[in-house]
Amino acid sequence: EDKVVQSPLSLVVHEGDTVTLNCSYEVTNFRSLLWYKQEKKAPTFLFMLTSSGIEKKSGRLSSILDKKELFSILNITATQTGDSAVYLCAVTETSGSRLTFGEGTQLTVNP
Amino acid sequence: DTGVSQNPRHKITKRGQNVTFRCDPISEHNRLYWYRQTLGQGPEFLTYFQNEAQLEKSRLLSDRFSAERPKGSFSTLEIQRTEQGDSAMYLCASSLFWAIGELFFGEGSRLTVL
Fold first, then answer.
1. Chains A and B: how many Cβ contacts under 8 Å?
2. How far is residue A30's CA from residue A47's CA, in Å, rounded to a whole number?
3. Which helix (H) or strand (E) holds B31?
4. Looking at beta carbons, which residues of chain B come within 8 Å of A103?
5. Cross-chain Cβ contact B105/A44 below 8 Å
């Protein structure tokens, strides 16, 4: 069965700090790894990664995948209070039908 | 609003009652997913449709749960004989069939079983 483990589960930082969120996975037939942000209710898509070593970047957020070591990181630089959310990591298999999510990392950015 | 719409947003019911949730996906999306999320956990896959066909159902899904998407547009998720363990947020998501993984989620229907 597919498995996604995120760490840390919870993180509290001050505005302006840089954070790194971790995601490790076990999946039989890996297709892609995805990051979502969940503020209150609906998760919203951030990144999809399919190839090792290629960084995806959007503003202050960036992510990279290591398919050999089976992990991904999500970096957020110059954090803002609006970055406070749960960040979810998920994987899909080659069948592509379902996402298997990790527990998420609760990030709190204090002013 | 052209996002994914779910209703009711909240449902409180007594154990043993049946409940039904509705999801209206983004109109051009042919894939529709149901997930369940409990506090402190990530969303857990329940089932998904491509158009009106239910293509996969979680092995963990009890026979008390049934989902339909009769015309390939909106979907319903029914839970029969609810149990306290069914209390959770039920999330619906939709996507284009080729955009694997990039799901658009609704705000969820929160179920509380007393």
1. 58
2. 16
3. strand B31-37
4. 40-42
5. yes
For residue A5, CA distances in Å to A23, A105, B3 come to 6, 10, 30
Per-residue pLDDT band for B98 (boundaries 50, 70, 90) equals confident
Q: Across all residues in chain A, what is the average pLDDT?
A: 94
CA of A110: how far to CAs of A84, A104, B6, in Å? Answer: 8, 19, 32
Our CA dihedral for B108, B72, B102, A49, rounded to 10 degrees, sits at: 130
Mutation for A interface: B100, B103, B104, B110, most A CBs within 10 A? B100
Residue B100 C-beta-side C-alpha neighbours within 13 Å: 16
**Secondary structure letter of residue A54 according to DSSP:** P
DSSP state letter for A80: -
* Chain B residue with minimum CA distance to A32: B101
Angle (CA) B24-B82-B103 rounded to 5° is: 30
What tokens does A76 get? 């957020």
**Helix, strand, or coil (residue B86):** helix
List, for residues B44-78, the tens digit of each pLDDT value: 999 999 999 999 999 878 899 999 999 889 999 99
Q: Which residues of A touch B (CB under 8 A)?
A: 4, 31-32, 34, 41-45, 48, 88, 90, 92, 96-104
The two structure tokens encoding residue B2:
């052209």
Q: Residue written as tokens 């947020």?
A: B89
